[in-house]
Amino acid sequence: MHTRIENLIYHVENIFDNPVILNDREIRTENRRNCCAALTTLIQYLDLDSNEVKIPSAKGNIKLNMQFFSKKSDLPIHKCYRAVKSLTDLNFIHKNCQDRFVVNVKKIM
Questions:
Q1: Tens digits of residue pLDDT in 32-64
Q2: Which option is the CATH number for 2-108: 1.10.10.10, 1.20.120.160, 1.10.238.10, 3.60.40.10?
Q3: Which of 9, 32, 38, 75 has its CA 20 to 30 A from that of 107?
């Protein structure tokens, strides 16, 4: 199972090595790096069956917030928010009805 996660992370790094266009404008290099760090962190907590980002526990799934992702991705909170907004606009992630991030794995591959 780790092989699939590692494969996704490899593809993410390749995607953001090159210029990315959003709304007819190129995303700046720093924001591309931040997007890569944020998406890599999201993928590390990805449930491969549902493509939801979560941590299963005995009491149910633990909801992960932006402070958690900011800390895990080593990004300041405002840059983490900006990266998640860019990833949402680029259709790499979205939130489902339970307010959990869902990763668009087909877009990465």
A1: 899 999 999 999 888 888 888 888 778 877 778
A2: 1.10.10.10
A3: 75
